[in-house]
Design brief:
The structure is a homodimer of 350-residue chains.
Chain A (H helix, E strand, L loop, with lengths): L2 H24 L4 H14 L5 H12 L5 H25 L4 E2 L2 E2 L1 H11 L4 H28 L5 H30 L6 H27 L4 H28 L2 H4 L5 H5 L4 H6 L5 H7 L7 H13 L2 H20 L6 H18 L1
């Protein structure tokens, strides 16, 4: 096992202990509840453990030695991530994630097997997902409690986790509004939404939490937040580019879904102010867009400069993030931990 | 102001401070987010502050003096209550609560005003309610953090709040299953569901939290939990009777909704095993039940003995709860606090 695998294994162990205990508690309350906990556990498995990786990188890079404590903090962010995606799927009325039925989908399919009509089965699925997301959300806090950190550090970690939740709720709300409002948002508004909805809880706050747990200076915590914000925005912008131009294997998503949905991205906002929009506007958001039309949309997004604009923007953000690491109060070990994070994002642009 | 009003005012002050701070944080993240926080605040206002009242009763009855600390713990339970009803409305697809648009309803109506089609407006409403419930849930924990209790007491309070959430999620899941499955649940299964979904977080755990904050013995905490469980079940059983036979003013609900919905209650489960069910089975769950048919259903529920069965059951539970207060380790002051809670429930039967 390399270092990354070792760290991920510690986080997995925390989550496994948490779910084992929770299932033990759930069992006397009924088989259905136990089943829901099992599904929630399955929903936390197989992920990239990206947020715990950020916690660990900051913690170890700043000299932290108690990897078990860091694993609890990392697991808290992972469980927050689970809660947010489970409820995001409720909001998007999605029953599948990465090709596999999500919690709503599993419950719906099970109800259909038992003979429930489609509408009732779907309702049952969504209800179960609302409950499961609540359990994950509430317990992300509890994992923080179990890190063994001092009361003072725990309070600061709780503030950071709170900030993550507070920001992502704001971002989710803006995203819902984007999907409903007819006007095209500005590029800056899209960047703000993506930062709030994803970058804060995936990059900024896990890095800050790792630094706080390591007893770092306020200045180091602040710089890590800045690094996280910039690299997190770069990541999201690239993610949207790959959502249209990527290969299925790289993102786990098809490259037609975002186009059909008419997802508001930096590329789309940029394109909407170019002459290409006369045609693009007809294609983007067309629910039954076929592969030929999708290819035409991709071509237009490239020709009008939207793709290059987004890629350059992401590169700028990633470069700015990298330059933060050069600041004198960032120790070499931390730089070594975070440099690959930034270059991975840059590599995705190529 | 009498003592009850004084205590409620302290809880209101905690919630007001919390929402003032949250709105201040929300403002830079956009007017829509600020608006959501305002709606969430409105959803916590005007309630009976029942759970804080339980916290305060146990705390003061056991000699607690720091009413501000108790107000924070009470407010934590109130915010948990808000989270649960906001998400319960999402699950039940309700857009109105007590005659007033709830969060989903407010957002839906606003979107309709702006010209959104009904389906999109409803979706926006439900999405906002998912997010708002998450915020309330997450922050119920945070209010606990701010009570100023010692780390040890805080950990025990967190365990109790966790228990409340854990149980109500189980109860909500069972309730969803009841509403979907064609078979009639047993009376005992209905009591279990109602205990888990409501009694634990409304009676058992707030009383235990008040006792823990007051530094009470484990035995007192346990007895309060027993009292809470029994009086909580009695309350729920009576609430269901009033949901069919009550007057609008007493419950804030119509007495036809539960019949139309076919809500699984102790009365309905009892009636299903009597000859009256031949006709009752046609009426209960009939979505367009009119007032004449509702009156016929009420008549049959009374004649077949279902109403009396439920009332007697509630009386038994309330009496058993009362007898707990006679146990020697319950101080007189605590008995004085809790006796009215039990008699209020009994008075509802009359």
């Amino acid at each position: 096992m390399d270092i990354a695998q070792e760290r991920a294994a510690l986080v997995d162990a925390v989550l496994e202990r948490f779910f084992t205990l929770s299932k033990k508690r759930a069992e006397p309350l009924g088989q259905h509840y136990l089943h829901l906990w099992g599904l929630l556990e399955r929903n936390t498995q197989g992920g990239k453990r990206f947020r715990p990786r950020m916690v660990m990188a900051a913690y170890c890079g700043l000299g932290g030695r108690d990897l078990d404590a860091a694993a609890y903090v990392g697991a808290a962010f992972e469980l927050l991530h689970t809660a947010l995606i489970v409820h995001d799927d409720v909001i998007d009325r999605d029953f599948v994630r990465r090709g596999i039925p999500n919690i709503s989908g599993s419950y719906r399919d099970h109800a259909v097997t038992l003979g429930a009509p489609e509408e009732i089965a779907e309702h049952r699925g969504v209800s179960a997902a609302v409950i499961a997301g609540d359990l994950a959300l509430f317990n992300s806090y509890r994992l923080l409690d179990r890190s063994g950190a001092s009361a003072e550090v725990r309070d600061r970690l709780a503030d950071v986790l709170d900030e993550a939740m507070f920001a992502s709720a704001a971002g989710e709300l803006i995203d819902v509004d984007f999907s409903i409002e007819p006007e095209m948002p500005l590029v800056d508004d899209i960047l703000t939404m993506e930062r709030l909805k994803t970058a804060v809880y995936s990059f900024e706050t896990p890095l800050q939490a790792g630094a706080i747990l390591a007893g770092a200076s306020d200045k180091a915590v602040e710089t890590l937040g800045d690094f996280g914000r910039e690299i997190g925005i770069a990541y999201q912008v690239i993610d949207d580019v790959l959502g249209v131009f990527g290969e299925w294997g790289a993102t786990g998503k098809t490259t037609i879904g975002d186009l059909r949905e008419g997802k508001r991205t930096v590329m789309v906002a940029f394109a909407s102010s170019t002459p290409a929009w006369a045609r693009l506007g007809e294609l983007i958001g067309k629910h039954d867009l076929d592969e030929t039309e999708a290819e035409e949309a991709r071509e237009l997004l490239a020709v009008c400069g939207a793709r290059a604009f987004a890629e350059n923007l992401a590169r700028d953000y990633a470069q700015r993030a990298l330059s933060r690491l050069a600041e004198p109060h960032i120790p070499a070990a931390l730089r070594d931990e975070l440099h690959p994070v930034a270059t991975e994002v840059l590599d995705r642009v190529k």
